[in-house]
Automatic annotation (TrEMBL):
It comes from the Bacteria. This is Sulfatase-modifying factor enzyme-like domain-containing protein. InterPro entries: CTDL_fold, Sulfatase_Mod_Factor_Kinase, SUMF_dom, SUMF_sf. The lineage of its organism: Bacteria, Pseudomonadati, Myxococcota, Polyangia, Polyangiales. Gene3D superfamilies: paralog of FGE (formylglycine-generating enzyme). It holds the Pfam family FGE-sulfatase. GO terms for molecular function: formylglycine-generating oxidase activity. Residues 79-283 form the Sulfatase-modifying factor enzyme-like domain.
Amino acid sequence: MRTAIATALVALCLIGAVTWIAASRAGPVARCPDGMLPFGPRCCGEGQHLDTENRCQGTPTRCAAALRPTPEGCVSDSDPVTIPGGTLRLGPGDWEAQGIVEPHEASLPPFALDRFEVTEARYTACVTAAACAPVPMRGEQGLPVTGVTLAEASRCCAFAGGMVPSRDQLALAAAGTAGRRYPWGDTGAVCRRAAFGLLDGPCGEDASGPDLAGSRPAGASPQGVLDLAGNVAEWTSPPDPAAPTSDVVGGSWMDAGAPALRTWSVRRLPVTTRARDIGFRCAYPLR
């Protein structure tokens, strides 16, 4: 009996030692791509640093594959990508959606969609042209613009020759005709694929805003659209332009759990809502 107890104690000690060694060797949660480094809750380009307001400062020497280094930081180019048309099917096929998502089916023609969320640089260009109303910004060109109402987002998209996408358009871009759970596939809601849980874990702490648009290239959809899950939640256009509410989709940096990143996850908010975790991207008709 004593021998068995001693053997068990030795085994427990060995397991504890292995666990301690593994924990001591483990680094921070992997969330920043090659070319960028973690600073606090942010991913900044190599050669940059984080200031006291959680902004990436300095000229980067390298950025994520989807971004390019400039004197103003890592920035994205606003190149729309084609989303093939097809039949969108949303419903309780995903067991987690049962009892939450009403079955929905829609056939959509092909359209173009911004690869990246609209950034402060793009919105500033619209303000400079007197086509958009000024909104408070964090002063980092590559960050998604936030704190815009649906009407302000619509004006910016119109300035670019597009429109705020419908709920079905963003759902088709994220889920595809196969009904993916996430934009990249059915599994793998991890910090390197989506900027979420940056306020109070699991991917960071004490964030005061989103990360750079396009800073999670591992989370791209098959068509190469980035940040359809996480970073900022995105406005959609309601079927009735006069509707007082509209859907916001995609989850954001403030959401701590993966359910908010699901392609069927949605929040309905007043169209006049301004929030630091809500932004937008634009859709365009194919010519």
